[in-house]
Specification:
Thr_synth_N_sf, binds pyridoxal-5'-phosphate, Rossmann fold, about 500 residues, Threonine synthase-like 2, pyridoxal phosphate binding, 2 domains, alpha/beta, Threonine_Synthase, pyridoxal phosphate
Length: about 500
Amino acid sequence: MWYISTRGTAPRVDFEGALCSGYAPDGGLYMPEELPQLDRETLRHWSSLSYPSLVKELCSLFIRPELIPREDLNDLIDRAFSRFRSGDVVHLRKLKNELNVLELWYGVTYAFKDLSLSCAAQFLQYFLEKKGKHVTIVVGTSGDTGSAAIESVQGAKNVDIIVLLPKGHCTKIQELQMTTVLKENVHVFGVEGNSDELDEPIKAMFTDVAFVKKHNLMSLNSINWCRVLVQIAHHFFAYFQCSPSLDMHPLPFVEMVVPTGAGGNLAAGCLAQKMGLPVRLVAAVNHNDIIHRAIQRGDFSLSAAVRPSLASAMDIQVPYNMERIFWLFSGSNSQVTRALMEQFERTQSLHLPKDLHSKLSEAMTSVSVSDEAITQAMGRCWEENQYLLCPHSAVAVSYHYQQMDGRQPSAPQCCLASASAVKFPEVVLAAGLTPKIPEEILALERKETRCTLMKRGDDWTRMLRATIEDLSRKRKRGPRRGPRKQHGKAPPAI
Ligand SMILES: *Cc1c(COP(=O)(O)O)cnc(C)c1O
C-alpha cells in the first residue's frame, strides 16, 4: 500500500513516510493510492469483532506486513489501548428516543483523540526503535490534541514532545492534563496568546527545512494520515452495533452523526463509506459553520474569525481535512483538488464546482448547532436518561433530537460522542446540570505542575528553537535532562 498526495506532484510514500510527515512536499495531504473494497463476507466477519480486533483488521489493510508484520501490528495496537479505562475501548450506549451514543472517550484524557494518537505513537516508536532514531514532536493545541499526544508518548525513549498550549484559553482540566505529566521527555509551554497565535512560531519553525531535518522534527496534528486511518474503525464498529441486520439485500443504511471541526472524523467516515460501508454521514458543527456551508451550498469560504463556542474543540476556522474529502469526491482527481485548494489559499474563498458539490451532498448532510441548542440537548438527554453529554457530543445529539421531533428518521442514527462530560464541567454547569468529576480528575489539582511561560513580548520562535537545540545537545552529551522549568502547585478550583 502506497500513499499519494491529494495534490498529485509529491513522490509517493509508504505508511512510515505518511506517518512521519505532516503535509506532503507539494502542500497536499496523504491518501492511500487505492481503497480496499469490503465484500459482504468480510463485513460479516468484521461485525463479530471487538473494537480492538477491528482496528487490527483495518490497519492490516493499510500497512504492508513487510513494514509491520501482522503479529507486531497486533501487539502494538494492544499496547496502544492498554491504558484505556475500559477493556472494550469503545462502547455503544442505547438511550431513550432511539438515541445511540458511541462513547469514544475511554482513553486516559477522556476524548476520542486518545484512540488514534495512542496507535500513531506506538507505530512511530516501532519504526524509531528499528532504526535507532529519535524524533522531537512539536504540537500546538487548543486542548485535546496536546494532552492526548503527551499521554501517548510520555516516557518513550526515542521521542521528545514539545507542546504549546494557549494559556487561559483551554479548560483548567485540559491544561492540568498536560502540565502534570513530569516525564523527562515532555516539554510544555504556556503561551500568552490564542491557538492561532501559538501556531505562528510552529509554522515558522517548520518552514525552515534544514532545521527540521537537522533535529528530526515532526508534528502529530489532525492532518496526519494515521489519525484518520484509526478513526475509520469506529465508523465500522458503530455500523455493526446499530444496523438492524446484515442479512438484508441491500444492506440497511445507518446514519452516522459526526461532531466535527477540522473534518478529521468526517474524512474517516467518508473513507469507510467508500470502502463499502452503507453509512450516511451527518457533519454536525457548532456555529463555526464552514463545513456546513460547503455541504449545503458549495460555499467553502473562510469566515472573518473563529467564534468561541461551548464546543471549543470544534472552534476551527480552516477545516484542513476537507481537502481529503474533496479529493475523494472528485474521483481522486489531484489536478482538480490542487486547483481548488490553491485558489482557497490565495483568496480564502471557494465555490465548489457543481459536480463536486452534488457528490458531496449525496454522501452527507450537515447541521450547524447554536450554543443554546447544545445546552438544550445536554438538558434533554439528562432529563430523559440521567446521562451527561459533553458539549461536542451534544452537537450531534441535538441533530438527532431535531430529527426525532420532526419526521421519524428513515434510518437508525448513531451519534459519535467525542469526549466525556467530565472534561467540561464548566459547560455542564452552564447547561444547568451538575458535573460529576471522578477522583482521578480531582487528583490533578493536587499534583505538581511543570510549564514554561512564553510571555507576550518574548520571541516565541527563538525560545522554541533554543529548546530544540538544547535537547539535541543534551542527547549528544548522553543522559538526558530537560530544560529548566518553572515548578509550582496547580492553582485550586476548576
Ligand atoms: C478534536 C475534537 C473534535 C473534532 O475532531 P475533528 O475530527 O478534527 O473534526 C470533536 N470533539 C472533540 C472533543 C475533540 O477533541
